């Protein structure tokens, strides 16, 4: 059952290993099987009504913690695939400084537990402040949650079930992956209905989504041993910097958050291009830099930012595809992931970072599943 460790030392590790299965379950639920034989149907099936999307001008996403990181990737996908402007707000900030009301706006609450107090209050507020306005301003509330019986699920008009199964480790792993899957589904659903992508392009993306479970399995099978050994080298490390750009900037944030949460090592996630405006001053041989360098629009940029860190003697760890001689030359250590189109890369890039944090914390003998001061679900403000 979900509440047993099944031979894993911690729930977190078990949940990291459940990710290929979670992605498969999401694909089973979100992809429309009819599409395989009939290309005139919508390839995505989220059970959402057309009305939710009619005349859509703006998307605002509200979340906390890891769900907020998934939302940043969601924003990228919605903007780049469906061409709709999207904002991501911390629920705790939104509550006390709600942005001016915009018409025809879809508000998405993203919460694994469906119970996070700040997220629930922010959505409640949005619902109330729009209630008496004219049609164009009426609330359109969508939830992305792992708990279809939660407070969030009752509050919103529609919810996408994350299908991650019970997550026990306080540090979110498989629920993050599931949230990304929900956002791929949503962005493609929007893109299909707004006709912003050609059928060929949709097909290409969907084919690649289907490869993800096997690719995550490959990372788990081939990388864990090496990551565990690498983790042992950081028993005295006090600071870490994670850098990424574009769709993988949120992965840098998530990599840093995982490390902070369970190993209590200070870590910062930064957009690689911003390094020179501050964090580069921190770098020396004692501060390892993890660069997420996935081929695509910003690949060369990230590599050159990584080289700048290397010039300050930082130990450089790269998350990058197998067999890139150029990358292996730059990085001291390489955490390899299968080669994949940039758009799909976050879901692979996060896995070695989860394993790295896990093994650093486990090696330090810390309580990985129940880190100090943290709760799985924060139901107070
Ligand atoms: C807590 C958890 C985090 C989680 C955040 C948001 O801080 O420790 O892992 O990301 O809450 O939780 P939610 O259930 O709203 O996704």
TrEMBL record:
Its EC number is 2.6.1.16. One of its GO terms (biological process) is fructose 6-phosphate metabolic process. Residues 49-196, 230-371 form the SIS domain. One of its GO terms (molecular function) is carbohydrate derivative binding. The active site is at 376 (for fru-6p isomerization activity). It is an enzyme of class 2 (transferase). It is found in: Cytoplasm. One of its GO terms (cellular component) is cytosol. Keywords: Aminotransferase, Cytoplasm, Glutamine amidotransferase, Repeat, Transferase. It catalyses: D-fructose 6-phosphate + L-glutamine = D-glucosamine 6-phosphate + L-glutamate. Signal peptide: none annotated. Homodimer. Catalyzes the first step in hexosamine metabolism, converting fructose-6P into glucosamine-6P using glutamine as a nitrogen source. This is Glutamine--fructose-6-phosphate aminotransferase [isomerizing]. It comes from Thermocoleostomius sinensis A174. The gene is glmS.
């Amino acid at each position: 059952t979900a509440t047993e460790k099944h031979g894993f030392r911690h729930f977190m590790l078990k949940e990291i290993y459940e990710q290929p299965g979670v992605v498969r379950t999401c694909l089973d639920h979100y992809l429309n099987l009819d599409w395989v034989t009939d290309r005139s149907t919508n390839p995505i099936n989220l059970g959402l009504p057309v009305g939710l999307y009619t005349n859509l001008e703006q998307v605002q996403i509200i979340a906390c913690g890891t769900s907020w990181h998934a939302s940043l990737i969601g924003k990228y996908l919605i903007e780049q695939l469906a061409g709709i402007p999207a904002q991501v707000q911390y629920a705790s900030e939104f509550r006390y400084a709600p942005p001016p009301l915009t018409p025809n706006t879809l508000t998405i609450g993203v919460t694994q537990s469906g119970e996070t107090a700040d997220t629930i209050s922010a959505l409640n507020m949005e619902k109330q402040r729009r209630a008496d306005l004219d049609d164009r301003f009426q609330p359109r509330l969508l939830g992305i949650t792992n708990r279809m019986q939660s407070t969030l699920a009752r509050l919103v008009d529609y919810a996408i079930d994350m299908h991650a199964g019970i997550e026990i480790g306080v540090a979110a792993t498989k629920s993050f992956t599931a949230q990304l899957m929900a956002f791929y589904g949503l962005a493609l659903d929007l893109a299909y209905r707004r006709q912003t992508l050609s059928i060929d392009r949709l097909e290409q993306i969907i084919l690649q989504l289907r490869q993800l479970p096997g690719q995550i399995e490959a990372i788990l099978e081939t990388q864990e041993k090496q990551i565990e050994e690498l983790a042992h080298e950081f028993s005295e490390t006090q600071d870490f910097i994670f850098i990424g750009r574009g769709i993988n900037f949120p992965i840098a944030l998530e990599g840093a958050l995982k490390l902070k949460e369970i190993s209590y090592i200070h870590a910062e996630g930064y957009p690689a291009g911003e390094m020179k405006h501050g964090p580069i001053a921190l770098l020396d041989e004692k501060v390892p830099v993890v660069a997420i360098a996935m081929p695509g629009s910003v690949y060369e940029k990230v590599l050159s930012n990584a080289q700048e860190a290397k010039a300050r003697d930082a130990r450089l760890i790269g998350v990058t595809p197998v067999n890139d001689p150029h990358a292996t030359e730059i990085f001291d250590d390489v955490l390899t992931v299968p080669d994949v189109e940039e758009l799909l890369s976050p879901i692979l890039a996060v896995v070695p970072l989860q394993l790295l944090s896990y093994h650093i914390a486990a090696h330090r003998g810390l309580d990985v599943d129940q880190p100090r001061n943290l709760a799985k679900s924060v139901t107070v403000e």
